Amino acid sequence: MDIKHLEYFITIVENNFNLSQSAKILLISQPALTKFIKEFEEREDVELFVRSKGRLIDLTPLGKEFYENSLGVLSQYNYLMDSLRINKDEVKGTVRVGIPPVILTVLFKEAIPKFILENPDIKLEIVEEGAYELQKMLLLQEIDVAFLIDPITTQNIISKTVVQDEAVAVFNKNHKFASNTKAVTYDELSQEKMILLNDTFMIHHQIKKNFRVSGVTPDILFESGAWDLLASMCESLDIVTILPASIVDHYTQNTLLCRSLSPFFSWSVNVCRLDNIYHSQLVDFVESFFIEAFKSYKKT
Fold first, then answer.
1. DSSP state, 142?
2. Which of 52, 170, 191, 217 counts the most CB atoms within 10 A of its CB?
C-alpha cells in the first residue's frame, strides 16, 4: 500500500464508508475502489472493514488501529513534502510571531532554538505581548502569526489548538492546600489571599469570570505581568495563585505544589492567523513547523 492507497482508505472511513461518495472525491470509479479494498485485504490476509449484506459499515479493531496509524503517516508525508517544496524554492525572509510572555519560556524553550538552527535563512522576530494586544496586532497585520490562549475573542482569526492543558491553584508546600489532592473549589479559593496575572492576560479574565459564575469574590492582594514573580511570592508566602499547569512543571525549584480546580479550568494554546488574506509560503512553513513541534507535547 502506497501513500495514494492510504488516502483511499482514509477517505472511505471519513465518508462513513460510502464508496460511491468516496470514489467521486478520489476521482476514480467505484468498482476500482472496491477492487482495491478486496485485493489489499486478500494480499495482506487482514480484514479492515466490518461488512453487512455486502456493504461496509464500520472498521474492525485492526482496521481502527490501521486508520489511526494511517493518519499519522499521511500527516508526516504531507509535512515532508511541504518542507521539500519550500526548501526547493529557497524560502527566505522574516516572520513576526506573537507569543504571550506567560508561555514563551515555558513552552517555546526548545521549539524556538530548534527552528533557528534548522532554518538559518529565516529570521524569526518574537513579539512578547498579552493576548488582547496580540489579537489587535494580528488584525492590523503587524504580526504574521500569534500563539493565543483560549478563548479567542476577535472575529476573522482562524486558530488551531497546539497545546491542551489546565490552569491550577498554585501554593507552597506549607500551605493548607498541600494536605489534600482533591480539586480546589472557587469557594475555597475565595477564603485565601490570592495573587494573579494582570488583565493583559486572557487567563486573568477567565479567572474573574469563574469566580463570578461561582458566586464568590476573590481576595486579591496583588496582580503582576510576571508569572515568575507570582511563583516566587507563593514560594515564600502563605498565598495562592492560578497559573497554567505547565508553569508549575517548569518551576525547577520543586518548592511549589498545585491542585486542579473545580469546575475544571481548561487552558489551551492556539496558533492563530488572520482569515481571508493571502499568507506567504514562508508564513505557512513557520506555522507548520510549530504545529509539528508541539505534537509531542504532553502534560506531565
1. S
2. 170
